[in-house]
Amino acid sequence: MEVNKEITELYLSSSSSSPIPTFTTRWWSKDTVAMVTGANKGIGFSLVNQLAQLGLTVILTARDVEKGNRAVELLKSHGLHVHFYRLDVSDPASIKTFALWFQKKFGVLDILINNAAVSFNDIYENSVDHAEIVIKTNFYGVKLLTETLLPMFRRSDSISRILNISSRLGSINKMRNPKMKEMLLNEGLSAQEIEGMVNLFLENVRDGTWKNQGWPEIWTDYAVSKLALNAYSRVLAKQYEDFGLISVNCFCPGFTQTSMTSGKGTHTAEDAAEIGARLALLPPGELPTGKFYIGFNPGVISKL
Ligand SMILES: NC(=O)c1ccc[n+]([C@@H]2O[C@H](COP(=O)([O-])OP(=O)(O)OC[C@H]3O[C@@H](n4cnc5c(N)ncnc54)[C@H](OP(=O)(O)O)[C@@H]3O)[C@@H](O)[C@H]2O)c1
């Protein structure tokens, strides 16, 4: 406990040029339950590490049991205890099994960090050969997991929170199709319309017309998946806005040195996760909803 206190103080005193606030209040306790998807490596692993250091109860999930166990052991060797359960977000059966285990073991959830994602392109490549799995993992996986876990959120005064790790490649300004852009900007946007958008994209991929339809130009399948994720986060944030007990925000960690970028990037996964952890742990009085935090040093905060 003493170690956790020291770490919190370290965070509190760290200065940053980012508009993302630093910790001001330690509102959480060891009974605060947080889970992170795709956490055997990269930003997800570092998020688990930071949340565990800060003294929360953390569930590390990964689609591969061996990799997940290895990550847990690594944390253990540094004196950190986290829980592990297998979760493949692209597989509805795995989501169901996870949710049953979670409900039995913990019952309530305070923080959900949807981090797991895939991209099959090298940095300057733009193949859509794996578009189906990209959309299934990065959009439908997050949507189904979130909807399955929504009834388990504690909804206390400390406010349950969902932080979706997204990408600036999924910003609305990357969409060049005017009809789609108008739909995405519409205040009355629905989850069904977002699904319609991704299904149209997949249809364009199948019939080979995707290059001429105004979809985002860089990492097109990944960008569409994150566009859909951002749009869905906005719809969800709006849905829960009036109740005030669940907040939904997105965070783009910027160009980070992980497997997804073949180790290239301007900063480490730890740097990105430090900001992610701060966002996930904003004090209830300072926690917004429906926001998109883009990068850091300096970062931008926009409406989703
Ligand atoms: N790195 C960047 O520059 C960057 C920039 C913007 C946004 N992001 C976002 O940051 C998040 C973390 O990415 P990262 O950079 O840390 O990449 P990463 O090192 O490749 O990590 C991705 C994680 O997601 C897991 N995953 C993939 N498919 C999954 C599935 N179906 N079910 C469960 N887990 C699955 C991977 O597991 P395996 O080890 O089994 O593959 C891995 O643990 C992603 O949402 C990504 O889109 C990254």
Query: The biggest beta sheet, please?
Result: 8 strands, mixed
Label the structural class. alpha/beta
Shape: globular
Please, how many domains?
1
Task: Tell me the Rg in angstroms.
Answer: 18 Å
* Cα distance spanning the termini: 37 Å
Number of helices: 9
pLDDT under 50 segments (min length 5)? 1-17
Write out the distinct hetero groups bound to the structure: NADP nicotinamide-adenine-dinucleotide phosphate
What fraction of the residues are assigned to beta strands by DSSP?
A: 5-15%
How would you describe the oligomerization state of the chains in this entry? single chain
The CATH superfamily appears as NAD(P)-binding Rossmann-like Domain
User: Count the strands?
Assistant: 10
Estimate the helix proportion, in percent. 40-55%
How confident is the prediction overall: mean pLDDT?
92
* CATH fold call: Rossmann fold
Order of helices and strands: HEHEHEHEHEHHHEEEHEE
Keywords:
304 residues, alpha/beta, Rossmann fold, 9 helices, 42% helix, binds NADP nicotinamide-adenine-dinucleotide phosphate
How would you describe what is shown here?
With 304 residues, the chain is an alpha/beta fold. The chain has one domain: 3-Layer(aba) Sandwich (Rossmann fold), CATH 3.40.50.720. 42% of the residues lie in helices and 14% in strands. An eight-stranded mixed β-sheet has the order 3-2-1-4-5-6-9-10, sandwiched between helices. A two-stranded parallel sheet has the order 7-8. α4 runs parallel beside α5. The N terminus is likely disordered. Bound molecules: NADP nicotinamide-adenine-dinucleotide phosphate (NAP). NADP nicotinamide-adenine-dinucleotide phosphate (NAP) binds next to α2 and α5. The site of NADP nicotinamide-adenine-dinucleotide phosphate (NAP) has 33 residues, from α2 and α5.
